[in-house]
Amino acid sequence: MDIKSVREYLGKDWEAVKEKIETSLMSDIALLNATNSSILSNSGKQLRPLLALLVARACSGHQISEATVRYAAASELLHNATLLHDDVADGSVKRRGAPTIMSLMGPSVSVLVGDYWLVKAMDLIIDADDAAGDSCVMKIFSKTLKDLAEGEMLQLQKAQKGDTDENDYLRIIYSKTASLFEAASVSAAISVGASEAYVQAARVMGYSHGRIMFRHILPNVTHLAIIYFTTLFAASVMLEVTASYLGLGAQNFPSWGMMISLQLCMVSPLVLFLFVLFCF
Protein backbone atom coordinates (compact mmCIF):
# COMPACT_ATOMS: atom_id res chain seq x y z
CA MET A 1 0.00 0.00 0.00
CA ASP A 2 1.36 3.42 -0.99
CA ILE A 3 0.04 6.93 -1.57
CA LYS A 4 -0.89 6.08 -5.17
CA SER A 5 -3.07 3.24 -3.93
CA VAL A 6 -4.82 5.55 -1.48
CA ARG A 7 -5.55 8.02 -4.28
CA GLU A 8 -6.95 5.20 -6.40
CA TYR A 9 -9.09 4.07 -3.47
CA LEU A 10 -10.54 7.58 -3.14
CA GLY A 11 -11.21 7.64 -6.89
CA LYS A 12 -13.46 10.42 -8.15
CA ASP A 13 -13.39 12.17 -4.78
CA TRP A 14 -9.64 12.68 -5.13
CA GLU A 15 -10.02 13.79 -8.75
CA ALA A 16 -12.58 16.39 -7.62
CA VAL A 17 -10.12 17.82 -5.09
CA LYS A 18 -7.32 17.98 -7.66
CA GLU A 19 -9.60 19.78 -10.09
CA LYS A 20 -10.71 22.21 -7.40
CA ILE A 21 -7.11 23.06 -6.56
CA GLU A 22 -6.25 23.70 -10.21
CA THR A 23 -9.34 25.74 -11.09
CA SER A 24 -9.14 27.85 -7.93
CA LEU A 25 -5.65 29.01 -8.90
CA MET A 26 -6.53 30.13 -12.43
CA SER A 27 -5.74 33.73 -13.25
CA ASP A 28 -5.66 36.03 -16.27
CA ILE A 29 -1.98 36.71 -15.49
CA ALA A 30 0.08 34.37 -17.66
CA LEU A 31 3.16 34.51 -15.45
CA LEU A 32 1.13 33.60 -12.38
CA ASN A 33 -0.51 30.66 -14.18
CA ALA A 34 2.87 29.40 -15.34
CA THR A 35 4.29 29.69 -11.83
CA ASN A 36 1.30 27.89 -10.32
CA SER A 37 1.59 25.10 -12.89
CA SER A 38 5.24 24.68 -12.02
CA ILE A 39 4.40 24.30 -8.33
CA LEU A 40 1.56 21.84 -9.02
CA SER A 41 3.83 19.70 -11.18
CA ASN A 42 5.96 19.06 -8.08
CA SER A 43 3.19 18.97 -5.50
CA GLY A 44 4.48 16.32 -3.11
CA LYS A 45 2.32 13.72 -1.38
CA GLN A 46 -0.66 15.99 -0.61
CA LEU A 47 -1.32 14.26 2.70
CA ARG A 48 -3.68 16.90 4.12
CA PRO A 49 -6.40 16.70 1.48
CA LEU A 50 -6.09 12.92 1.40
CA LEU A 51 -6.62 12.81 5.15
CA ALA A 52 -9.59 15.16 4.83
CA LEU A 53 -11.30 12.86 2.34
CA LEU A 54 -10.66 9.79 4.48
CA VAL A 55 -12.10 11.52 7.54
CA ALA A 56 -15.19 12.71 5.66
CA ARG A 57 -15.83 9.20 4.39
CA ALA A 58 -15.32 7.67 7.84
CA CYS A 59 -17.82 10.09 9.36
CA SER A 60 -20.53 9.70 6.74
CA GLY A 61 -20.63 6.17 5.41
CA HIS A 62 -18.30 6.89 2.47
CA GLN A 63 -20.01 10.08 1.30
CA ILE A 64 -18.48 13.52 0.84
CA SER A 65 -19.93 16.94 0.01
CA GLU A 66 -18.90 19.92 -2.09
CA ALA A 67 -17.76 21.55 1.14
CA THR A 68 -15.49 18.56 1.78
CA VAL A 69 -13.81 19.13 -1.59
CA ARG A 70 -13.39 22.85 -0.91
CA TYR A 71 -11.94 22.40 2.58
CA ALA A 72 -9.62 19.62 1.42
CA ALA A 73 -8.34 21.75 -1.47
CA ALA A 74 -7.93 24.72 0.87
CA SER A 75 -5.74 22.69 3.22
CA GLU A 76 -3.34 21.91 0.37
CA LEU A 77 -3.29 25.51 -0.85
CA LEU A 78 -2.51 26.74 2.67
CA HIS A 79 0.25 24.18 3.07
CA ASN A 80 1.94 25.25 -0.16
CA ALA A 81 1.50 28.91 0.71
CA THR A 82 3.46 28.35 3.93
CA LEU A 83 6.18 26.49 2.00
CA LEU A 84 6.58 29.37 -0.43
CA HIS A 85 7.01 31.71 2.53
CA ASP A 86 9.26 29.26 4.40
CA ASP A 87 11.60 29.03 1.40
CA VAL A 88 12.22 32.77 1.69
CA ALA A 89 12.69 32.68 5.46
CA ASP A 90 15.05 29.69 5.22
CA GLY A 91 16.80 30.71 1.99
CA SER A 92 15.93 27.31 0.48
CA VAL A 93 17.09 26.74 -3.09
CA LYS A 94 15.49 23.29 -3.46
CA ARG A 95 12.30 21.63 -2.30
CA ARG A 96 11.21 18.07 -3.13
CA GLY A 97 14.33 17.78 -5.23
CA ALA A 98 13.48 20.70 -7.52
CA PRO A 99 14.52 24.37 -7.53
CA THR A 100 12.26 26.59 -5.44
CA ILE A 101 10.34 29.56 -6.81
CA MET A 102 12.51 31.66 -4.51
CA SER A 103 15.71 30.47 -6.19
CA LEU A 104 14.30 30.74 -9.72
CA MET A 105 12.38 34.01 -9.51
CA GLY A 106 13.51 35.68 -6.30
CA PRO A 107 12.09 36.07 -2.78
CA SER A 108 9.55 38.74 -3.75
CA VAL A 109 7.84 36.46 -6.26
CA SER A 110 7.84 33.58 -3.79
CA VAL A 111 6.14 35.73 -1.16
CA LEU A 112 3.61 37.13 -3.64
CA VAL A 113 2.70 33.70 -5.01
CA GLY A 114 2.43 32.39 -1.46
CA ASP A 115 0.03 35.23 -0.66
CA TYR A 116 -2.01 34.37 -3.76
CA TRP A 117 -2.35 30.72 -2.71
CA LEU A 118 -3.31 31.84 0.79
CA VAL A 119 -6.07 34.13 -0.50
CA LYS A 120 -7.37 31.43 -2.83
CA ALA A 121 -7.55 29.01 0.08
CA MET A 122 -9.55 31.54 2.07
CA ASP A 123 -11.89 32.01 -0.91
CA LEU A 124 -12.65 28.27 -0.93
CA ILE A 125 -13.34 28.23 2.81
CA ILE A 126 -15.54 31.33 2.68
CA ASP A 127 -17.58 29.95 -0.22
CA ALA A 128 -18.17 26.68 1.63
CA ASP A 129 -19.03 28.48 4.86
CA ASP A 130 -21.45 30.81 3.04
CA ALA A 131 -23.23 27.84 1.50
CA ALA A 132 -23.60 26.28 4.95
CA GLY A 133 -24.63 29.56 6.57
CA ASP A 134 -21.92 29.20 9.22
CA SER A 135 -18.42 30.63 9.62
CA CYS A 136 -17.11 28.02 12.05
CA VAL A 137 -14.62 26.49 9.62
CA MET A 138 -13.17 29.87 8.72
CA LYS A 139 -12.50 30.39 12.43
CA ILE A 140 -10.74 27.02 12.56
CA PHE A 141 -8.45 27.85 9.65
CA SER A 142 -7.91 31.38 10.98
CA LYS A 143 -6.54 29.88 14.20
CA THR A 144 -4.36 27.57 12.12
CA LEU A 145 -2.84 30.53 10.27
CA LYS A 146 -2.07 32.15 13.61
CA ASP A 147 -0.46 28.92 14.84
CA LEU A 148 1.63 28.64 11.67
CA ALA A 149 2.99 32.17 12.03
CA GLU A 150 3.69 31.77 15.74
CA GLY A 151 5.39 28.42 15.17
CA GLU A 152 7.74 29.89 12.57
CA MET A 153 8.62 32.85 14.79
CA LEU A 154 9.18 30.62 17.82
CA GLN A 155 11.45 28.39 15.78
CA LEU A 156 13.49 31.40 14.64
CA GLN A 157 13.68 32.69 18.21
CA LYS A 158 14.84 29.36 19.60
CA ALA A 159 17.35 28.91 16.78
CA GLN A 160 18.92 32.24 17.70
CA LYS A 161 19.13 31.46 21.40
CA GLY A 162 19.87 27.75 21.13
CA ASP A 163 17.74 26.95 24.19
CA THR A 164 15.02 24.74 22.72
CA ASP A 165 13.55 22.27 25.21
CA GLU A 166 11.04 19.47 24.63
CA ASN A 167 8.01 21.67 25.27
CA ASP A 168 9.29 24.23 22.78
CA TYR A 169 9.88 21.48 20.23
CA LEU A 170 6.40 20.03 20.64
CA ARG A 171 4.82 23.46 20.40
CA ILE A 172 6.74 24.21 17.21
CA ILE A 173 5.75 20.95 15.51
CA TYR A 174 2.14 21.42 16.58
CA SER A 175 2.05 24.98 15.27
CA LYS A 176 3.92 24.34 12.03
CA THR A 177 2.59 20.88 11.17
CA ALA A 178 -0.14 19.41 13.37
CA SER A 179 -2.36 22.50 13.39
CA LEU A 180 -3.08 22.19 9.67
CA PHE A 181 -3.64 18.44 9.89
CA GLU A 182 -6.07 19.16 12.71
CA ALA A 183 -7.90 21.80 10.66
CA ALA A 184 -8.11 19.50 7.64
CA SER A 185 -9.55 16.69 9.75
CA VAL A 186 -12.05 18.81 11.68
CA SER A 187 -13.29 20.71 8.63
CA ALA A 188 -13.80 17.42 6.79
CA ALA A 189 -15.92 16.04 9.62
CA ILE A 190 -17.99 19.24 9.76
CA SER A 191 -18.45 19.20 5.98
CA VAL A 192 -20.51 15.99 6.15
CA GLY A 193 -22.58 17.01 9.15
CA ALA A 194 -20.77 14.77 11.61
CA SER A 195 -21.86 14.77 15.25
CA GLU A 196 -19.84 16.64 17.84
CA ALA A 197 -18.38 13.35 19.05
CA TYR A 198 -17.08 12.58 15.55
CA VAL A 199 -15.75 16.11 15.13
CA GLN A 200 -13.78 15.82 18.35
CA ALA A 201 -12.51 12.37 17.35
CA ALA A 202 -11.35 13.85 14.04
CA ARG A 203 -9.63 16.65 15.95
CA VAL A 204 -7.72 14.20 18.13
CA MET A 205 -6.72 12.13 15.10
CA GLY A 206 -5.42 15.11 13.14
CA TYR A 207 -3.70 16.54 16.20
CA SER A 208 -2.04 13.23 17.10
CA HIS A 209 -1.01 12.48 13.55
CA GLY A 210 0.66 15.84 13.02
CA ARG A 211 2.06 16.64 16.48
CA ILE A 212 3.25 13.29 17.74
CA MET A 213 3.76 11.02 14.76
CA PHE A 214 4.63 13.26 11.81
CA ARG A 215 7.87 14.71 13.18
CA HIS A 216 8.30 13.20 16.63
CA ILE A 217 8.17 9.44 16.08
CA LEU A 218 9.00 8.89 12.42
CA PRO A 219 11.26 11.47 10.75
CA ASN A 220 10.81 9.84 7.37
CA VAL A 221 7.63 11.30 5.86
CA THR A 222 7.35 8.57 3.26
CA HIS A 223 7.35 5.80 5.84
CA LEU A 224 4.79 7.62 7.96
CA ALA A 225 2.46 8.24 5.03
CA ILE A 226 2.56 4.61 3.96
CA ILE A 227 2.00 3.32 7.49
CA TYR A 228 -0.75 5.78 8.33
CA PHE A 229 -2.83 5.42 5.19
CA THR A 230 -2.24 1.69 5.00
CA THR A 231 -3.61 1.41 8.52
CA LEU A 232 -6.70 3.47 7.75
CA PHE A 233 -7.34 1.57 4.56
CA ALA A 234 -6.89 -1.77 6.31
CA ALA A 235 -9.28 -0.69 9.05
CA SER A 236 -11.83 0.37 6.44
CA VAL A 237 -11.59 -2.96 4.63
CA MET A 238 -11.87 -4.89 7.89
CA LEU A 239 -14.96 -2.93 8.86
CA GLU A 240 -16.69 -3.54 5.55
CA VAL A 241 -15.92 -7.27 5.62
CA THR A 242 -17.10 -7.58 9.22
CA ALA A 243 -20.28 -5.60 8.58
CA SER A 244 -21.04 -7.66 5.49
CA TYR A 245 -20.53 -10.88 7.46
CA LEU A 246 -22.85 -9.70 10.23
CA GLY A 247 -25.42 -8.40 7.76
CA LEU A 248 -25.09 -4.80 8.93
CA GLY A 249 -25.67 -1.76 6.73
CA ALA A 250 -23.34 1.14 5.85
CA GLN A 251 -24.95 3.26 8.56
CA ASN A 252 -22.95 1.26 11.08
CA PHE A 253 -19.61 2.10 9.52
CA PRO A 254 -19.08 5.68 10.73
CA SER A 255 -19.13 5.00 14.47
CA TRP A 256 -16.89 1.96 14.13
CA GLY A 257 -14.56 3.71 11.72
CA MET A 258 -14.07 6.78 13.88
CA MET A 259 -13.55 4.70 17.03
CA ILE A 260 -10.88 2.55 15.41
CA SER A 261 -9.22 5.53 13.68
CA LEU A 262 -9.05 7.38 17.01
CA GLN A 263 -7.59 4.38 18.79
CA LEU A 264 -4.98 3.86 16.06
CA CYS A 265 -3.77 7.41 16.51
CA MET A 266 -3.37 7.01 20.26
CA VAL A 267 -1.52 3.68 20.37
CA SER A 268 2.26 3.32 20.41
CA PRO A 269 4.26 3.18 17.18
CA LEU A 270 5.08 -0.47 17.93
CA VAL A 271 1.41 -1.42 18.01
CA LEU A 272 0.82 0.51 14.79
CA PHE A 273 3.68 -1.31 13.06
CA LEU A 274 2.42 -4.68 14.30
CA PHE A 275 -1.10 -3.88 13.07
CA VAL A 276 0.15 -3.11 9.56
CA LEU A 277 2.43 -6.16 9.46
CA PHE A 278 -0.39 -8.39 10.66
CA CYS A 279 -2.88 -7.09 8.08
CA PHE A 280 -0.47 -7.18 5.14
| Outline type | globular
Gap between N and C termini: 9 Å
One letter per element, helices H and strands E, the order comes to: HHHHHEEHHHHHHHH
Briefly note the structural class of the backbone: mainly alpha
State mean pLDDT (0 to 100 scale): 81
Strand order of the largest sheet: 1-2
Biggest sheet overview: 2 strands, antiparallel
| Unreliable stretches covering 5 or more consecutive residues | 216-227, 250-260, 262-280
**Estimated helix fraction:** over 70%
> What's the oligomerization state?
single chain
The fraction of residues in strands falls at under 5%
Which properties best describe this structure?
mainly alpha, single chain, 81% helix, two-stranded antiparallel sheet, 13 helices, 280 residues
